[in-house]
Specification:
Layout: H1 6-19, E1 23-27, H2 28-42, E2 47-52, H3 59-67, E3 71-74, H4 77-86, E4 93-95, H5 102-110, E5 114-117, H6 120-129, E6 134-140, E7 162-163, H7 167-177, E8 180-185, H8 195-208, E9 217-219, H9 237-253, E10 261-264, H10 268-271, E11 275-286, E12 291-295, H11 304-308, E13 314-316, E14 324-330, E15 339-347, E16 354-357, E17 378-382, E18 388-392, H12 397-407
Parallel strand pairs: 1-17, 2-3, 2-10, 3-4, 4-5, 5-6, 6-7, 6-8, 8-9, 9-10, 12-14
Antiparallel strand pairs: 1-11, 11-12, 11-16, 13-16, 14-15, 17-18
Helix pairs in contact: 6-7, 8-9
Bound molecules: pyridoxal-5'-phosphate.
């Protein structure tokens, strides 16, 4: 998304005025649109959608997912308990903690939540502790993809999943402890626009599934990308239909076991476009070769540019008709990787202007830190009626300090 509607623009300026900055603003309408889009394309498949809550676990985001019938991909005990407290039924939560501890294994199992196991040693420990149980296994089909090498989660360099070459060991452990492998899982990476590669990965798992007799679901993961740049196209849904949905339907039709479901678990696809990070321009400074627009936010609030070199479109909300100038739009953190945009044309930025950093609804707030002892941003929810609600305030300086002093 590189443009806003007139109404979104108005709401954002209003939020900046009423709630101050830095503030994340989320539009419910966009989340519902994205969910419906995926549901429409996957209709006809026996389907369960999960939401990878690591993308954005703000309470109203989670409540929207629940209302829309989604389940949850949880990767830590706190994510798991939070999802259950929001109201997700246990049988719609899958626990995929990486390098799971015994404590985490017991924690999830005692609450009735199914484990998604990505290591043979954990499968063995689970079998010892809970013989005769059902479990899901995460496989690494050796096909990975993603918008940056840091987000590729399959292939020989990836720590995730049990290599598909070791399926024989999975069966041996399952036999030893009378475990029933009811689910197979994969997640190959994030920000994937290439449906061909996604299908290549899925087909490895589908092939591997032929040796599992009691499967209830195959979870093909998340990873669906969105367009961040003005010149980028959204995920090509007609090729998604042709290369992924149709073959999945054919697979299900030809599968002997009744009731086998396909699960997807996107994060970014559902929430990236719903979120805008509002920041205030504190300083405009002429360097020798560039103009810096310094804001009251930064990499502590949206780390994707620093971490992945990710592009986020930046709009000057308070001077949208200003002449285009070229800026480095930067934050207030003591790091030179602290930027939102480099060498970017933006409508003239003046001290006091409000910028909107777009498509910040996924891996934005959930990856924030309080580095430099700066508060996390506030969060504001815009419901389907266009009403705004503060769902999380910023911490005051006194609250930030008090929290640190309590730890002493
Ligand atoms: C296991 C798992 N599932 C799903 C996702 C969601 O990925 P995305 O936001 O790209 O859809 C992730 C993201 O890291 C993940 O680790």
């Amino acid at each position: 998304m590189t443009e806003l509607t007139i109404e979104q623009h108005r709401i954002l300026l209003d939020c900046a005025q009423t709630q101050g900055t830095p503030t994340y603003v989320y539009f419910e309408e966009t989340i519902v649109r994205q969910i419906n889009k995926l549901k429409k394309h996957l209709s006809g498949l026996p389907l369960q959608l999960l939401y990878a809550m690591k993308a954005n676990h703000s309470v109203p985001v989670m409540q929207t997912m629940l209302r829309e019938g989604l389940g949850i991909d949880a990767v830590s005990p706190a994510e798991l308990v939070y999802a259950l407290k929001i109201g997700f039924p246990v049988d719609r939560v899958l626990f995929s903690a990486n390098n799971m501890t015994d404590g985490e294994m017991h924690y999830a199992t005692e609450r009735g939540v199914m484990l998604n196991v990505g290591e043979l040693s954990r499968l063995e420990a689970f079998g010892q502790a809970y013989p005769g149980s059902d479990v899901c296994v995460r496989l690494n089909g050796q096909v990975g993809a993603g918008h940056h090498e840091h987000v590729i989660t399959a292939g020989d360099k990836s720590k995730f999943g049990i290599p598909v070459e070791q399926v024989g060991d999975v069966h041996a452990i399952a036999r030893k402890y009378d475990l029933t492998i009811v689910g197979l899982h994969q997640h190959i990476g994030s920000g994937i626009m290439d449906t061909k590669t996604l299908w290549q990965a899925i087909s490895v798992i589908l092939d591997a599934s032929s040796s599992f007799e009691n499967l209830r679901f195959i979870n093909v993961g998340g990873g669906l990308g969105i367009a961040y740049r003005p010149d980028e196209q959204d995920l090509d849904m007609s090729s998604f239909d042709r290369l992924i949905v149709e073959p999945l339907k054919a697979f299900i039709d030809g599968h002997p076991s009744e009731g086998l479901a396909i699960w997807f678990e996107p994060g970014r696809f559902f929430t990236a476009q719903c979120g805008v990070l509002l920041a205030h321009v504190n300083t405009v400074k002429e360097g020798t070769t560039r103009t810096f627009a310094g804001t009251d936010s930064g990499m502590n609030h949206l780390v994707r540019p620093a971490m992945y070199g990710a592009y986020h479109h930046v709009l000057n909300l308070s001077n949208p008709e200003g002449p285009l100038n070229t800026y480095d739009v930067v934050g207030n953190i003591c790091e030179s990787s602290d930027f939102f945009a480099k060498d970017r044309e933006v409508a003239q930025l003046r001290e006091g202007d409000i910028i909107g950093v777009l498509d910040a609804g996924a891996y934005g707030m959930s990856m924030t830190t309080t580095y430099n002892m700066r508060s996390k941003p506030a969060e504001v929810w815009i419901d389907l009626a266009g009403e705004q609600r503060l769902v999380r305030p910023r911490r005051t300086v006194e609250e930030m300090v008090a929290q640190e002093m309590r730890q002493a």
